[in-house]
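Table S5 (text form). Sequence records supplied for joint modeling of the two-component complex.
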Amino acid sequence: NAGVTQTPKFQVLKTGQSMTLQCAQDMNHEYMSWYRQDPGMGLRLIHYSVGAGITDQGEVPNGYNVSRSTTEDFPLRLLSAAPSQTSVYFCASSAGTGIIYEQYFGPGTRLTVT
Amino acid sequence: SQQGEEDPQALSIQEGENATMNCSYKTSINNLQWYRQNSGRGLVHLILIRSNEREKHSGRLRVTLDTSKKSSSLLITASRAADTASYFCATDAENQGGKLIFGQGTELSVKP
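The corresponding C-alpha coordinate record, covering 226 residues in total, follows.
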Protein backbone atom coordinates (compact mmCIF):
# COMPACT_ATOMS: atom_id res chain seq x y z
CA ASN A 1 0.00 0.00 0.00
CA ALA A 2 1.21 3.50 -0.82
CA GLY A 3 -0.70 4.95 2.15
CA VAL A 4 -1.44 8.67 1.76
CA THR A 5 0.14 10.40 -1.22
CA GLN A 6 0.28 14.12 -1.92
CA THR A 7 1.26 16.01 -5.04
CA PRO A 8 3.07 18.22 -5.70
CA LYS A 9 5.82 18.18 -3.06
CA PHE A 10 6.72 21.82 -3.70
CA GLN A 11 4.86 24.65 -5.40
CA VAL A 12 5.45 28.37 -5.93
CA LEU A 13 2.46 30.52 -6.85
CA LYS A 14 1.99 34.17 -7.55
CA THR A 15 -0.63 36.11 -5.62
CA GLY A 16 -4.05 35.60 -7.20
CA GLN A 17 -3.27 32.32 -8.91
CA SER A 18 -5.33 29.23 -8.18
CA MET A 19 -4.24 25.65 -7.83
CA THR A 20 -5.27 22.25 -6.51
CA LEU A 21 -3.28 20.18 -4.05
CA GLN A 22 -3.91 16.51 -4.63
CA CYS A 23 -4.35 13.89 -1.92
CA ALA A 24 -5.10 10.20 -2.36
CA GLN A 25 -5.22 7.20 -0.03
CA ASP A 26 -5.46 3.50 -0.77
CA MET A 27 -6.56 2.26 2.66
CA ASN A 28 -10.30 2.63 2.05
CA HIS A 29 -10.52 5.17 4.87
CA GLU A 30 -13.75 7.11 5.18
CA TYR A 31 -12.23 10.06 7.07
CA MET A 32 -9.85 12.45 5.34
CA SER A 33 -8.58 15.86 6.37
CA TRP A 34 -6.37 18.75 5.36
CA TYR A 35 -4.11 20.67 7.74
CA ARG A 36 -1.72 23.53 7.33
CA GLN A 37 1.41 23.87 9.44
CA ASP A 38 3.05 27.20 10.09
CA PRO A 39 6.10 27.80 12.32
CA GLY A 40 5.07 27.97 15.97
CA MET A 41 1.41 27.28 15.17
CA GLY A 42 1.24 23.50 15.14
CA LEU A 43 -1.25 22.01 12.70
CA ARG A 44 -4.53 23.73 11.99
CA LEU A 45 -7.47 21.90 10.44
CA ILE A 46 -8.68 23.40 7.15
CA HIS A 47 -11.40 21.02 5.96
CA TYR A 48 -12.34 17.43 6.59
CA SER A 49 -14.58 14.75 5.14
CA VAL A 50 -16.30 11.78 6.78
CA GLY A 51 -17.07 10.07 3.48
CA ALA A 52 -17.65 10.56 -0.23
CA GLY A 53 -19.95 13.50 -0.86
CA ILE A 54 -19.58 14.88 2.69
CA THR A 55 -17.24 17.71 3.63
CA ASP A 56 -17.11 20.20 6.48
CA GLN A 57 -15.07 23.17 7.63
CA GLY A 58 -12.28 23.01 10.14
CA GLU A 59 -10.55 25.82 12.07
CA VAL A 60 -9.21 27.84 9.12
CA PRO A 61 -11.36 27.17 6.01
CA ASN A 62 -11.33 30.62 4.39
CA GLY A 63 -9.68 30.73 0.98
CA TYR A 64 -9.87 26.96 0.48
CA ASN A 65 -12.40 24.63 -1.15
CA VAL A 66 -12.63 20.86 -1.02
CA SER A 67 -14.73 18.13 -2.60
CA ARG A 68 -14.91 14.38 -2.05
CA SER A 69 -16.30 12.60 -5.08
CA THR A 70 -14.57 9.28 -4.27
CA THR A 71 -13.40 7.56 -1.11
CA GLU A 72 -9.80 7.67 -2.34
CA ASP A 73 -9.33 11.33 -3.30
CA PHE A 74 -9.64 14.58 -1.37
CA PRO A 75 -8.26 17.55 -3.33
CA LEU A 76 -7.75 20.97 -1.76
CA ARG A 77 -8.29 24.01 -3.96
CA LEU A 78 -6.82 27.43 -3.38
CA LEU A 79 -9.14 29.86 -5.09
CA SER A 80 -6.96 32.97 -5.24
CA ALA A 81 -3.61 32.46 -3.55
CA ALA A 82 -2.40 34.99 -0.98
CA PRO A 83 1.01 35.28 0.75
CA SER A 84 -0.74 34.32 4.03
CA GLN A 85 -1.33 30.88 2.51
CA THR A 86 2.39 30.18 2.37
CA SER A 87 2.63 27.07 4.49
CA VAL A 88 3.18 23.33 4.53
CA TYR A 89 -0.01 21.42 3.80
CA PHE A 90 -0.66 17.93 5.10
CA CYS A 91 -3.39 15.53 4.11
CA ALA A 92 -4.38 12.71 6.45
CA SER A 93 -6.81 9.81 6.52
CA SER A 94 -8.30 7.63 9.22
CA ALA A 95 -10.61 4.67 9.59
CA GLY A 96 -13.81 5.46 11.45
CA THR A 97 -15.85 8.60 11.25
CA GLY A 98 -17.88 9.26 14.40
CA ILE A 99 -14.76 8.86 16.51
CA ILE A 100 -11.39 9.66 14.98
CA TYR A 101 -8.73 7.03 15.39
CA GLU A 102 -5.12 6.95 14.26
CA GLN A 103 -4.52 9.33 11.38
CA TYR A 104 -2.08 8.49 8.59
CA PHE A 105 -0.35 11.54 7.18
CA GLY A 106 1.02 12.24 3.74
CA PRO A 107 4.51 13.71 3.26
CA GLY A 108 3.24 17.26 2.80
CA THR A 109 3.21 19.96 0.13
CA ARG A 110 5.37 23.00 0.72
CA LEU A 111 3.62 26.00 -0.83
CA THR A 112 5.10 29.45 -1.29
CA VAL A 113 2.96 32.35 -2.49
CA THR A 114 4.88 35.41 -3.69
CA SER B 1 -8.51 28.70 19.11
CA GLN B 2 -6.65 25.43 19.34
CA GLN B 3 -7.95 22.77 21.66
CA GLY B 4 -4.60 21.52 22.92
CA GLU B 5 -1.80 23.47 24.48
CA GLU B 6 1.54 21.86 25.11
CA ASP B 7 4.18 22.47 27.66
CA PRO B 8 7.07 22.97 27.42
CA GLN B 9 7.43 24.39 23.92
CA ALA B 10 11.02 23.12 23.80
CA LEU B 11 12.93 20.56 25.84
CA SER B 12 16.60 19.66 25.69
CA ILE B 13 17.94 16.60 27.52
CA GLN B 14 20.85 14.15 27.45
CA GLU B 15 20.61 10.64 26.07
CA GLY B 16 19.39 8.21 28.69
CA GLU B 17 17.28 10.79 30.53
CA ASN B 18 13.50 10.75 30.57
CA ALA B 19 11.47 13.34 28.70
CA THR B 20 8.03 14.49 29.85
CA MET B 21 5.67 16.58 27.75
CA ASN B 22 2.31 17.88 28.86
CA CYS B 23 -0.88 18.69 27.01
CA SER B 24 -3.92 20.56 28.27
CA TYR B 25 -7.23 20.80 26.47
CA LYS B 26 -10.51 22.62 26.87
CA THR B 27 -13.54 20.42 26.17
CA SER B 28 -14.66 16.85 26.79
CA ILE B 29 -13.02 14.36 24.49
CA ASN B 30 -13.54 10.96 22.92
CA ASN B 31 -9.80 10.34 22.84
CA LEU B 32 -6.43 12.04 22.90
CA GLN B 33 -3.61 11.11 20.57
CA TRP B 34 0.12 11.79 20.44
CA TYR B 35 2.06 12.21 17.22
CA ARG B 36 5.70 12.64 16.35
CA GLN B 37 7.16 14.70 13.53
CA ASN B 38 10.74 14.53 12.39
CA SER B 39 12.04 17.69 10.77
CA GLY B 40 10.55 18.22 7.32
CA ARG B 41 8.43 15.06 7.43
CA GLY B 42 4.80 14.11 7.95
CA LEU B 43 3.39 13.19 11.34
CA VAL B 44 3.47 9.66 12.68
CA HIS B 45 0.93 8.36 15.18
CA LEU B 46 2.42 7.20 18.48
CA ILE B 47 -0.40 6.33 20.83
CA LEU B 48 -4.12 6.89 21.43
CA ILE B 49 -5.74 7.00 24.85
CA ARG B 50 -9.50 6.88 25.23
CA SER B 51 -11.41 9.13 27.60
CA ASN B 52 -12.16 6.21 29.94
CA GLU B 53 -8.48 5.18 30.19
CA ARG B 54 -6.02 6.69 32.64
CA GLU B 55 -2.70 5.28 31.50
CA LYS B 56 -1.30 3.53 28.45
CA HIS B 57 2.10 2.14 27.55
CA SER B 58 3.81 1.44 24.25
CA GLY B 59 7.45 0.44 24.40
CA ARG B 60 9.34 3.35 25.99
CA LEU B 61 6.26 5.58 25.84
CA ARG B 62 3.88 6.12 28.73
CA VAL B 63 0.80 8.31 28.34
CA THR B 64 -1.47 9.42 31.16
CA LEU B 65 -4.83 11.13 30.92
CA ASP B 66 -6.58 13.10 33.65
CA THR B 67 -10.02 14.08 32.36
CA SER B 68 -10.86 15.98 35.56
CA LYS B 69 -7.92 18.31 34.89
CA LYS B 70 -8.28 18.06 31.11
CA SER B 71 -4.63 17.18 30.75
CA SER B 72 -2.35 14.47 29.43
CA SER B 73 1.33 13.74 29.62
CA LEU B 74 3.71 11.82 27.40
CA LEU B 75 6.77 10.26 29.02
CA ILE B 76 9.62 8.92 26.92
CA THR B 77 11.95 6.83 29.03
CA ALA B 78 15.67 6.27 28.41
CA SER B 79 15.68 8.74 25.54
CA ARG B 80 17.90 8.34 22.50
CA ALA B 81 19.27 10.86 20.00
CA ALA B 82 16.84 9.37 17.47
CA ASP B 83 13.94 10.59 19.63
CA THR B 84 14.81 14.16 18.62
CA ALA B 85 11.61 15.43 16.98
CA SER B 86 8.52 17.52 17.58
CA TYR B 87 5.71 15.90 19.54
CA PHE B 88 2.08 16.91 19.22
CA CYS B 89 -1.05 16.05 21.13
CA ALA B 90 -4.37 15.99 19.31
CA THR B 91 -7.88 15.73 20.69
CA ASP B 92 -11.04 14.27 19.24
CA ALA B 93 -13.58 16.41 21.06
CA GLU B 94 -17.02 15.06 21.89
CA ASN B 95 -19.92 16.22 19.74
CA GLN B 96 -17.66 17.95 17.23
CA GLY B 97 -18.60 15.73 14.31
CA GLY B 98 -15.10 14.62 13.48
CA LYS B 99 -12.46 17.26 14.10
CA LEU B 100 -9.03 16.19 15.33
CA ILE B 101 -7.44 19.33 16.71
CA PHE B 102 -3.71 19.59 17.33
CA GLY B 103 -1.69 21.46 19.89
CA GLN B 104 1.31 23.57 19.02
CA GLY B 105 3.80 20.88 19.89
CA THR B 106 6.90 20.32 21.99
CA GLU B 107 10.27 20.34 20.28
CA LEU B 108 12.46 17.70 21.91
CA SER B 109 16.22 17.66 21.46
CA VAL B 110 18.14 14.67 22.81
CA LYS B 111 21.87 15.24 22.90
CA PRO B 112 24.23 12.25 22.59
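Note: Residues 36 and 89 of chain A are 4 Å apart (CA to CA).
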